[in-house]
């Protein structure tokens, strides 16, 4: 989209800009990255559902700054 905007600012004809947006839309529609983003990135690259990891906080130990 940055390139399309740069082309628009450079004065490319509106028909060229419109066609570029159509092509970009088709690429995004079939892109695995874009599909993953639309689905909330629930799937890994193999089409399988991504395992959710639980976050467990570990206790933080306070260090003695006086070394006693």
Describe the structure.
It is a single chain. The protein has helices at 2-10, 14-30, 32-38. It is an all-alpha fold. It has a domain at 2-38. The termini are far apart. The protein has three helices and no strands.
Q: Could you say which overall geometry the principal axes of the C-alpha atoms support?
A: elongated
Structural class: mainly alpha
Strand content: under 5%
Largest sheet: none
Which quaternary structure do these chains form? Answer: single chain
Helix content: 40-55%
Q: What distance separates the N and C termini?
A: 61 Å
Low-confidence stretches: none
Summarize model confidence as the mean pLDDT.
75
Total count of helical runs of at least 4 residues: 3
Q: Over all CA atoms, what is the radius of gyration?
A: 24 Å
**Count of β-strands:** 0
List SSEs in N-to-C order.
HHH
Layout of secondary structure:
Elements lengths: L1 H9 L3 H17 L1 H7 L30
Helix pairs in contact: 1-2
Précis, in short:
By secondary structure, the chain is mainly alpha-helical. It has helices spanning 2-10, 14-30, 32-38. The longest helix is centred in the first third of the chain and has 17 residues, at 14-30.
Which key phrases capture this entry?
68 residues, 3 helices, mainly alpha
